[in-house]
Design a protein that fits this description.
Blueprint: H1 15-45, H2 51-63, H3 76-89, H4 96-109, H5 126-139, H6 142-147, H7 150-160, H8 177-189, H9 201-206, H10 225-238, H11 246-254, H12 276-279, H13 283-293, H14 308-318, H15 336-350, E1 351-353, E2 358-360, H16 381-391, H17 399-402, H18 413-417
Antiparallel strand pairs: 1-2
Domain Prenyltransferase alpha-alpha toroid: 49-379
Protein name: Protein farnesyltransferase subunit beta
Region (Disordered): 397-425
C-alpha cells in the first residue's frame, strides 16, 4: 500500500505491480531451485558402475561357489582368471593370502606332462593353460611365476602343434583358432616362443578370414567375434597382422556394434551380448595399431573406431546385476565370465592409446573409471610388462631341439615386443 498513515489516503497497489515485485524478489531463489533439482535429477539418472556390489560378488567367488558352478569343474583356472582380472580392473587389491592360495591351487592344476588342466588330476588343455598363465601374471609374485614349468609347457605346446601350423586344444582334441591364440599368448608371455614352434601358424590363421571380413573357427566357417579376436591377437603376437585384409576386417567388426543397443553382437543377425564388449571392441585397438604401422594418416589420436560412449551405456545400463556381477543382456543371470568380459570391454571403451598417448572417455562419474587392460592379453598392461621383464631374463628352454629346430632360432622378435601391442604414436 501507499499514501499517508491515514486510512482514507491508503490505496492498494495495482495487481500487476504486486506480481512484478514478487517475481523479482523471488526470481533468483526460484531459478536456483530449478537448476539444483535438475542437476540432482540428471546425476541420479547418470549410469553408475556398482563397484562395491561387484567387488563383494567377486570376493565371495574366490572362496566359495554354489552348486550351480559344478558344471565348470573343468574350467576352474578360468574362474580364477575371470575373478582376478575383474578385481584388477576395479583396482581392488588381492590379499597376499588369497594370491598364495590361488598359486597353490593352479600348481595342482599343472599337468606332469606340461600345461595346465581344467582342475587337479585332469588332462592338460590349451584353454585353461591360457587362463592359468594369465591369472599367475596378474598375481605377479615370484611364487606365481615359479608355478609355471616353462620347459614342460613348451613340450606341451609341441604335443598339440599340427603339421599345417594349427594347434589342437588338447592331445587328440579339436582344432580351432582359439588354440593358436592361447598357444601364442602363453608362449610370448613366458618367453618360450620360437619361430619353429609357430611355423606355418600365421598362414593357417589367415585362411580363417572369410568373405565377410571376420574370422571363423577354422577355414571356411562363418565369421565370429571370439574367433576373430583370437586370430587377430595371435597374428599381432607373431608380428603378422598386416597379412590380414584389414579394411574388410574393420568393416565387419564395426558393423557388429548394434545401432540401438550400443553393445556388440558376435555374428551377423545375432542378438547383442555383453561378453562381445571385449571380443569385438578389443579388436579395434589391434586394428588401430595395424593401420598405424601401415602408415594410415587419417587415424584419430583420441578415439578408437567405434562408438565408445554407446558401448559404455549398454554395459552400465543393461548389463549390471543390482546385487553385483554383470550379464549377457537384461533378463539373463550374472556370472563370472560375463563380469570379466563386460568390465574388459568397458575398460577398452574408456581408454585410448598407451602410456605415451592416453585419452580417457568416462561416461558418468569419475568413479566409473576402470584400470586399462592390454588389448592382446586382456590383463593390465603393467602386469604384461612385469611378466615379460621377468621371463625374458630366463633362457629359452631347449625343447625345440628335440623337435628338429635349430638352437640358433631363439625367441622371435615379435614375441619380445608384443608387450607394447597397443596403439603407438
Amino acid at each position: 500500500q501507499t499514501g499517508s498513515f491515514s486510512k482514507e489516503q491508503r490505496q492498494p497497489l495495482p495487481k500487476s505491480i504486486c506480481v512484478y515485485i514478487f517475481y523479482h524478489a523471488h526470481a533468483l531463489n526460484f531459478w536456483m531451485c530449478i537448476v539444483t533439482k535438475t542437476s540432482v535429477f540428471f546425476t541420479c539418472c547418470m549410469p553408475t558402475l556398482l563397484r562395491e556390489q561387484h567387488y563383494q560378488y567377486l570376493k565371495k567367488g574366490l572362496r566359495h561357489l554354489s552348486d550351480s558352478y559344478e558344471c565348470l569343474d573343468a574350467s576352474r583356472p578360468w574362474l580364477c582368471y575371470w575373478i582376478l582380472h575383474s578385481l584388477e580392473l576395479l583396482e581392488e587389491p588381492i590379499p597376499a593370502a588369497v594370491a598364495s592360495d590361488v598359486c597353490q591351487f593352479l600348481a595342482r592344476c599343472q599337468s606332469p606332462t606340461g600345461g595346465f588342466a581344467g582342475g587337479p588330476g585332469q588332462h592338460a588343455h590349451l584353454a585353461p593353460t591360457y587362463a592359468a598363465v594369465n591369472a599367475l601374471c596378474i598375481i605377479g609374485t615370484e611364487e606365481a611365476y615359479n608355478v609355471i614349468d616353462r620347459e614342460k609347457l613348451l613340450d606341451f605346446l609341441w604335443s598339440v602343434k599340427q603339421p599345417d601350423g594349427s594347434f589342437v586344444m588338447h592331445v587328440g582334441g579339436e582344432v580351432d583358432v582359439r588354440s593358436a591364440y592361447c598357444a601364442a599368448s602363453v608362449a610370448s608371455l613366458t618367453n618360450i616362443l620360437t619361430p619353429k614352434l609357430f611355423e606355418d601358424t600365421p598362414s593357417w590363421i589367415l585362411r580363417c578370414q572369410n568373405w565377410e571380413g571376420g574370422l571363423g573357427g577354422v577355414p571356411g566357417l562363418e565369421a565370429h567375434g571370439g574367433y576373430t579376436f583370437c586370430g587377430t591377437a595371435a597374428l599381432v603376437i607373431l608380428g603378422k597382422e598386416h597379412m590380414l585384409d584389414l579394411k574388410a576386417l574393420l568393416r565387419w567388426v564395426v558393423s557388429r556394434q548394434m545401432r540401438f543397443e550400443g553393445g556388440f553382437q558376435g555374428r551377423c543377425n545375432k542378438l547383442v551380448d555383453g561378453c562381445y564388449s571385449f571380443w569385438q571392441a578389443g579388436l579395434l585397438p589391434l586394428l588401430h595399431r595395424a593401420f598405424f604401422k601401415e602408415g594410415e594418416s587419417q587415424l584419430s589420436r583420441q578415439r578408437w573406431m567405434f562408438e565408445q560412449q554407446a558401448l559404455q551405456e549398454y554395459i552400465l545400463l543393461c548389463c549390471q546385476n543390482p546385487a553385483g556381477g554383470l550379464l549377457d543382456k537384461p533378463g539373463k543371470s550374472r556370472d563370472f565370465y560375463h563380469t570379466c568380459y563386460c568390465l574388459s570391454g568397458l575398460s577398452i571403451a574408456q581408454h585410448f592409446g598407451n602410456v605415451d598417448l592416453h585419452h580417457e572417455l568416462i561416461l558418468g562419474k569419475e568413479e566409473n573409471r576402470l584400470a586399462p587392460t592390454h588389448p592382446v592379453y586382456n590383463i593390465c598392461p603393467e602386469k604384461v610388462a612385469q611378466a615379460l621383464q621377468h621371463f625374458h631374463q630366463l633362457p629359452v628352454p631347449e625343447a625345440d631341439q628335440r623337435h628338429g629346430a635349430s638352437s640358433a632360432d631363439g625367441p622371435s622378435a615379435p614375441a619380445a615386443s608384443s608387450g607394447s601391442a597397443e596403439h603407438q604414436s
